Amino acid sequence: MGTRMSTAPKPNLSPQQYLAQERLAAFKSQYFQGEVYAMAGATREHNLIVGNIVREVGNALKDRPCEVYPSDMRVKINPTGLYTYPDATVTCGKPEFEDEYFDTLINPTMIFEVLSDSTESYDRGGKFRQYREIESLKEYVIVAQDRPSVESYLRQSDGRWLLREEQSIESSIRFESIGATVPLAEIYRNVRFKQPPHDLMMR
Question: How far is CA 87 from each of CA 2, 93, 140, rounded to the nearest angstrom?
């Protein structure tokens, strides 16, 4: 989750009550174990990176039976009951949804989260643990916004998750679950780092 999540829960709701409320809300909220958590807005860098990911991955998959969704697509983790909004989501094959509204995806193939200071520990820890419960999920990608760094966790046949990381703006990363290679320069297009990474400073 790239956006910040409020620590103040709202009154307990059932999943059905949450969805009815969420579909009328002016802003997005996560839901877990009866509690609803409002999500705050994102930085310029965060929004640029998410837009770049959706564009580049979408272009790579335009002739394939896959769909790429930005952060407005809600995802439900059926085994744990978490409703959340990944920064970008890919599903290949027939997308499956919780109900006839077609706004809550339950079978993502690939999930992207763009890190922020307030969400990094959650995205790496508790949220990733819940994502791993999604049977259809094959790859989880964590993207830093303060420096070039893309981490891809690929599910192996024995259930382990294999990490591959790229940290050079001049490199590309292969997303094996969808068979697409994306340059980091495109993921970070127009992003201004507060402290230029070493490989940029040495040019």
Answer: 6, 20, 11
